[in-house]
């Protein structure tokens, strides 16, 4: 049915008989400036599209031009990324050489300087470590000597090495308990402990295994195993915690040491010392500086810590340098 309206008739699209005088075709108008308009293209049927400049194209040509432009953009992006990657690949080695050539760097965890331009000399490092180990051993020996570690020093008053007690120049032994001897389980007589106990070098002091002399004053003379230049002496007694009574009143308090070259010698005073009842079991004391070489030592106890009947000696040691080493 023909379309008729007063407006179209007045504009001359239809004649008086109602026939159409002007014909037209529906077209799509493509907008290029913006991407969203290009994506908004829709096909209307299979009609020919007429652009404003009078050029006509069909739908297939429009689609092909859109695909070509997309491919061109993708290829452009690909070459741009390729150029950027190549640029970074060339720039990184240059920056690395710049930082590495800036100079030597010192590591905060090692005193050695790191040199990245030369190979590491492992032999030099090994030699350096060996020297450090030797220095540490020497320092350890000095520390043992300075800390008065009696167990790390030679003991020239040790019976197993040849030292002995000079009985006629020592105090008489005090019998702590009444003499008794066991006969069928009945105690009759018990011999007193010999002064040899003092120089037998017991590593663990046991209550009761000591030599006692009467009163608070006494002396003990020892023939040393070797001639020695004396540097230190050590005196041992059980601690309060080991004592059954919780006290060590029989321990020596003030004592002195004399070095003798012969038994007839009056002796050289090497020092007077105080044994601390609250201190360690084995206490070491440094003697006065001297250059004498002695074969005998006399230990004189002037007082104890309060026991009225007797005093006890558990251990006595003499430290120093062998006579021929001292002469060298």
Note down, in words, how this protein is organized.
The protein is an alpha+beta fold. It folds into three domains: 52 residues, no CATH class; 28 residues; 174 residues, Jelly Rolls. Helices cover 25% and strands 25% of the residues. It is rod-shaped and about 170 Å long.
Write out key terms for the chains shown:
seven-stranded antiparallel sheet; 328 residues; Jelly Rolls; two-stranded antiparallel ribbon; 3 domains
In CATH, the topology of the largest domain is named Jelly Rolls
Total domain count = 3
Give the class-level CATH name of the largest domain. Answer: Mainly Beta
pLDDT < 50 runs, ≥5 residues: 36-60, 99-114
Task: Please give the structural blueprint.
Layout: H1 6-10, H2 35-39, E1 49-50, E2 56-57, H3 59-100, E3 105-106, E4 113-114, H4 122-146, E5 164-166, E6 182-183, E7 186-187, E8 211-214, E9 218-236, E10 252-260, E11 268-274, E12 282-286, E13 294-304, E14 310-313, E15 315-322, H5 323-327
Antiparallel strand pairs: 1-2, 3-4, 5-9, 6-7, 8-14, 9-12, 9-13, 9-15, 10-11, 10-13
Concise structural overview:
With 328 residues, this protein is α+β, with helices and mostly antiparallel strands. The protein is 25% helix and 25% strand.
């Amino acid at each position: 049915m023909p379309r008729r309206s007063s407006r179209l008739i007045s504009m001359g699209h239809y004649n008086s008989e109602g026939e159409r005088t002007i014909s037209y075709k529906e077209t799509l108008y493509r907008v290029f400036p913006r991407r969203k308009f290009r994506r908004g293209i829709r096909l209307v049927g299979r009609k020919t599209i007429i652009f404003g400049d009078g050029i006509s194209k069909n739908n297939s040509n429009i689609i092909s031009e859109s695909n070509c432009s997309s491919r061109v953009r993708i290829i452009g992006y690909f070459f741009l990324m390729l150029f950027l990657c190549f640029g970074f690949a060339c720039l990184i080695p240059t920056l690395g050489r710049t930082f590495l050539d800036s100079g030597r760097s010192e590591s905060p965890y090692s005193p050695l300087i790191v040199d990245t331009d030369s190979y590491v000399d492992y032999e030099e490092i090994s030699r350096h470590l060996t020297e450090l180990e030797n220095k540490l051993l020497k320092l350890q020996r000095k520390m043992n000597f300075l800390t008065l570690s009696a167990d790390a020093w030679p003991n020239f008053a040790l019976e197993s090495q040849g030292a002995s007690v000079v009985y006629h120049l020592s105090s008489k032994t005090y019998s702590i308990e009444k003499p008794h001897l066991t006969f069928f389980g009945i105690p009759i007589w018990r011999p007193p402990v010999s002064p040899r106990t003092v120089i037998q070098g017991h590593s663990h002091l046991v209550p009761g295994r000591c030599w006692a002399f009467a009163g608070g004053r006494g002396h003990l003379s020892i023939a040393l195993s070797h001639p020695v230049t004396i540097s230190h002496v050590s005196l041992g007694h059980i601690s309060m915690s080991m004592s059954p009574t919780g006290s060590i009143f029989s321990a020596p308090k003030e004592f002195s040491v004399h070095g003798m070259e012969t038994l007839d010698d009056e002796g050289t005073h090497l020092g007077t010392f105080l044994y601390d009842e609250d201190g360690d079991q084995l206490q070491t004391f440094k003697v006065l500086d001297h250059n004498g070489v002695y074969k005998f030592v006399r230990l004189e106890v002037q007082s104890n810590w309060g026991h009225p009947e007797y005093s006890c000696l558990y251990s006595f040691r003499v430290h120093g340098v062998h006579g021929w080493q001292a002469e060298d």
